[in-house]
User: What shape does this take?
Amino acid sequence: MVESILVKDQKKVFKKQVVFEGIPVSFKVTVKYDDQCGNGHNTFSITGDIRGRNIDMGGCFHEEIAEHFPELAKYIKWHLCSSDGPMHYVANTLYWLGYSGWCDGKKDSPPNFDYAKKTAIWPDMPESFICDKDVRVLKVTRDAAALPVKRVLEDRLEGVLVDFKKAVEELGFVF
Assistant: This one.
């Protein structure tokens, strides 16, 4: 596993004036990699605050951050990745691939291959990983079908963490 030094507070702030929905605003982006929540591992986050006349909002404005702070765009994929991997890396990826068994056919419901690729930070994930609709019927068949996918995800985690460490250090943070 890639070793990380536990840091209590480590952040960078980027600010600029932009036009948001036709209104001039102050846009502040905070990039963090620390254990400020005290859970025993550092977690990366990239969030924004937009303030202006009649606008006061904050959150994960990743599309807007990429648009107005293009130098930060390549780091957005690491949002909520911690020193031990992306948040619920295997479980969330399997969920979005359809291995939870739940599927209502709506646009943002599983299986959702685009969400699975983002969750696993794997843009060229094989489409063959998507759970077959006939397999989803029984939990025992879903679990069996998920095993090889789970193993591949676990095997590639070390490489994901190496890339993550590189990105964190590019930003000037202690990993």
Notes: The chain has two domains: 11-83, 86-160. The beta strands are 11-20, 23-34, 43-52, 55-59, 81-82, 85-86. The longest strand covers residues 23-34. The chain has a mean pLDDT of 96.
